[in-house]
Design brief:
Number of strands: 6
Radius of gyration: 20 Å
Strand order of the largest sheet: 2-1-6-5-4-3
Distance between the termini: 34 Å
Shape: elongated
CATH superfamily of the largest domain: PhyR, sigma-like (SL) domain
CATH architecture of the largest domain: Up-down Bundle
Number of helices: 12
Helix content: 55-70%
Number of domains: 2
Length: 291
């Protein structure tokens, strides 16, 4: 393996992370990184003073271009659009867990959709990847002052993306396991007790499967979960997993992945559920589980 290939291989996880946060889609992110590889393969490596910077800059610019295109497509998306979830390994420290939960959650990626392509890139590179403003300016071809303004405005827009409650990962996990047991056990009273009165569910079916775009109220959400469990009974299996840096649930019906649910809690009850049901966006997780 030559040196250029080694450099790209070493940096690939970072490039993938940038593209995924820019696009909210693993498929789109992988296409961007593949395009970067093709350009890298053709580049004059000996003439580059900073290969890492070159790769990050090209990835950012290609992601901006791709994001412009997908934003137009998402305006015509059927129902509520949610990012494509993916399973994540458990970080080695509590600090990393909280950091990744903040950077990767479906709620966070969903709110990033409000930003313009340049603002999203500036915010992601500065706030998530800790790039200097001089580097950000070079990546998006704007002045440092303009980049500072973009990031500042983005922070204001994204305040609500931060978790409403800071909950220890082990507390989050314990609550989700109780919730999962109540679903598979078809225990309506426990399901209801574990949902906040003002809980909300946001669902994405992509026009391919039924999904509530927005459902409010613990009672109504409990009835939805209970009805599904009651209808399928022993065919329902719920698995607790780490997804997008947080604990979440995978629900299987007759062995087929039915939904991936990112769940926010206040430490005692579930306050918000992002439920991804679009089969296209579940395909990678399903494949990783042998389906």
């Amino acid at each position: 393996m030559d040196n250029a290939t080694l450099i790209f291989k070493r940096l690939r996880p970072r490039l993938q992370g940038i593209a995924y946060r820019m696009l909210g889609s693993l498929a789109e992110a992988e296409e961007v990184v593949q395009d970067v590889w093709l350009r890298w393969h053709e580049a004059a490596h000996d003439a580059l003073d900073n290969p890492d910077g070159w790769l990050v800059t090209v990835t950012t610019r290609l992601a901006i271009d791709r994001y412009r295109a997908v934003k137009v497509q998402r305006e015509h998306y059927v129902g509520q659009w949610l990012p494509e979830p993916h399973l994540t390994d458990s970080p080695s420290s509590p600090e990393q867990i909280l950091e990744r939960a903040d950077e990767l959650s479906l709620a966070f990626l969903m709110v990033l959709e409000r930003l313009s392509p340049e603002a999203r890139a500036a915010f992601v590179m500065r706030e998530v990847f800790d790039a200097d403003y001089a580097d950000v300016a070079r990546m998006i071809d704007k002045s440092e002052a303009a980049c500072r303004q973009l990031v500042s405005r983005a922070k204001t827009q994204l305040k609500e993306a931060r978790p409403r409650y800071e909950v220890a990962p082990e507390t989050h996990e314990r609550l989700l396991r109780r919730f999962a047991d109540a679903i598979t056990g078809q225990d309506f009273s426990v399901i209801r007790d574990l949902l906040a009165d003002d809980a909300e569910l946001i669902g994405d079916g992509g026009g391919k499967v039924p999904a509530f775009a927005h459902l409010e109220g613990g009672q109504r959400i409990a009835q939805l979960f209970y009805a599904t469990a009651l209808r399928h009974r022993e065919a329902v299996r719920v698995e607790v997993v780490r997804m997008n840096g947080q604990w979440g649930l995978l629900r299987f019906v007759d062995g087929v992945l039915d939904s991936a649910q990112a769940i926010e809690t206040d430490g005692e009850r579930v306050v918000r559920i992002h439920s991804q049901r679009n089969p296209d966006k579940l395909a990678r997780i399903a494949a990783s589980r042998g389906h």
